[in-house]
Design goal:
The protein is of the alpha/beta class and 142 residues long. The protein is 25% helix and 27% strand. It has one domain: P-loop containing nucleotide triphosphate hydrolases (Rossmann fold, 3-Layer(aba) Sandwich), CATH 3.40.50. A hairpin with a 5-residue loop joins strand 6 and strand 7. Helix 1 crosses helix 2. It is globular, with a radius of gyration of 14 Å. The model has no long low-confidence stretch (mean pLDDT 87).
Amino acid sequence: MNTVYKTNSPEETEALGVSLGSRLRSGQVLAMTGDLAAGKTTFLRGLARGMGLADDVTSPTFAIVHEYREGKLPLFHFDMYRLGSSEELFDIGWEDYLARGAVCAVEWSEKIDDAFYGDETVVRIEKLGDSDRQITVEEGRG
């Protein structure tokens, strides 16, 4: 089922993330897509707050993954921008991360689409203007 949201500011995008984050369950995977500066990290900052995490969420572009553990559920925030294939993701322990029961949020997921199992929630963020975004959430495809 697809749900489409429109936001008009970074604050609204973050607030939508808070709403979704409050409903996440252990082991859930979010596959996120969107151009550079579309608002993926802004959305994830809200998602983390909705999960009860107080940490400041930043993009893990150079580290590949940031782990946030102090909320009601842990969050593993991946950024696949610099990876060339899903093989590289498996090399850093993707299956081990999945087995740990955290929420795994993956930016630039289209780069490693074959690493998913079909039950992930897909979040597509599209820029409509300077601050306007269309965010499509496709829950549990497969």
